[in-house]
C-alpha cells in the first residue's frame, strides 16, 4: 500500500466527519444552554465531545458557529426557494409560499427555535452580531440569485434592491417570531399570528415586486 493511502471508502469518511461535527455542535449547545455562551470555553467543549481542541476549531473556526450551526441552510433558504419557483410564479410569490410553509412546519430557520435557545442567542452580543451577519449573507445570496434568474447586467441595481426588500421582510418576520417566543407564547399561537403577519408583510411588497422575476419556463 502506498504510504498515506487508505482503503476507507470516501462515503464512510464523510459520514464520520458529519457525525463528529454534529457531536461537537450538540455538546456545545448543551453547555451553552446550561451555562451561557460567554461562560463556556472551546477547551470545555472539546472535553465534552471527547475530541482535541484543534478538532473543534477545525470544524468551527468561530465559536459563534458552534451555537448557530445552520449558516448555509439559513443563508441559502430564500435563494433556493427562488431558484425552485414554479412556472408563472414570481420571486415574491415563491418566498411568500415558502415562508408560510415554514410557519406551518414550525421551521427553526425562520425563528421557531424554542424559548431556551432564543434566550441564549438574544442574551449574547456575540451571537446577536453573528446572526446579523447571517441575515446580511442571505441578502447577498438572494441578490446574486435574482441577478442570475433575471439576466441582469452587473451594474443593474434591481436585484439588490429586490433582495434587500425581500430579505428585509423575512428578517422582520424572523425577529417577530423570536420576540413572541421570548414572551412565552406557544408555537401554535405564534404560528397563527405569523401566518397573518406573513400575508400582510408580503402584501406590502406586492405593488413593487409582484411582477418581478416571474419564471416563464
TrEMBL record:
Signal peptide: none annotated. Pfam families: TetR_C_14, TetR_N. It comes from the Bacteria. Residues 41-60 bind DNA. Gene3D superfamilies: Homeodomain-like, Tetracycline Repressor, domain 2. One of its GO terms (molecular function) is transcription cis-regulatory region binding. This is TetR family transcriptional regulator. It comes from Actinocatenispora comari.
